[in-house]
Specification:
Helix content: 55-70%
Transmembrane segments: 15-36, 42-63, 70-89, 95-114, 126-148, 188-205, 214-231
Strand order of the largest sheet: 1-2-3
Strand content: under 5%
Largest sheet: 3 strands, antiparallel
Radius of gyration: 19 Å
Keywords: Membrane, Transmembrane, Transmembrane helix
Shape: globular
Oligomer: single chain
Length: 243
Amino acid sequence: MESVNFNVKNKLKDYIDLLIVLITIVISDDTILFGTNKNTQFIKIKYCIIILLFFYLILNYLIKKKKVNTNLFFITITLSILIMFTSLINNDFRFGYFYRCGILVIGMFLSLKIPLHRFAILYDKIMEVLAVFSLIGYFISISFSQILKYLPIIYNSANNAFYTLLLTNISVNHGGFHRNYGLFREPGVFQLYLIVALLFQMFIIHNPKLKTQIIYLIALLTTFSTTGYNAPHCQDNFSAFLS
């Protein structure tokens, strides 16, 4: 894994960027805790954090006086218009449509603050930790299931119960078939984040580490996701093609 230059001058900026990337992962709609949690207080907390992040990114943009890439701005506006057009056609003006437009705008300003290469490094650091935690939780669920009864339980919007270790969740009603959820709402969602991390390792990060890739691959295997199994082969073929 490539190191980020943590020096005294940039230390605060480095940690802020790391926190921002962590927030984009942890409080996303793809997680159980902040995405599909039956306890709506967590959803409200998510919205508050998103609003704070939005204003921080806007303020950072104004202070740094960075120029918005024309293509990026056009794509953001076009996608937002399409979302609102769908809302208009369906005569459906629920909060979700405006929320998605807001997320697109946040994404635009986030890309201005954190370049892709730097984002990939920070994302990789975070996902490696999350993958390790998920494997620990998965191992506990298989080998030391008696420990699980001491863990707090959360419920998703479909009323499915999960033991939680905050950074990873374990299905209560697994039916004898254990799958690795990580902190995400579905194993299939978790594998998507792992595949992105693998792509960053293979194509963006200059000094990828085999150890990190092995951790991602093991975590992928424990999701028992068909897409997760096939994706590494596609990545290898694509990498060979580029070579």
